[in-house]
Amino acid sequence: MKKYEMGKVREIKSLAPGIFDMKVECTLSEYALPGQFAMLYPKSASTLLPRPISICEVEKGALRFVFRVAGKGTKEFSGYSAGDEIRVMGPIGNGYPLDAAKGRKAVLLGGGIGVPPILELARQLSEKESDVTVIPGYRDSNMFLKEDFEKYAKTLVATEDGSFGTKGNVMDAIRENGIKPDVIYACGPMPMLKAIKKYAEENGIEAYISLEERMACGVGACLGCVVKTKEPDHHSHVNNTRICTEGPVFEAREVEI
Ligand SMILES: Cc1cc2nc3c(=O)[nH]c(=O)nc-3n(C[C@H](O)[C@H](O)[C@H](O)COP(=O)(O)OP(=O)(O)OC[C@H]3O[C@@H](n4cnc5c(N)ncnc54)[C@H](O)[C@@H]3O)c2cc1C
Ligand code: FES
Question: For 205-219, how does the pLDDT look when each residue is reduced to its tens digit (9 = 90+)?
Answer without folding.
Answer: 999 999 999 999 999
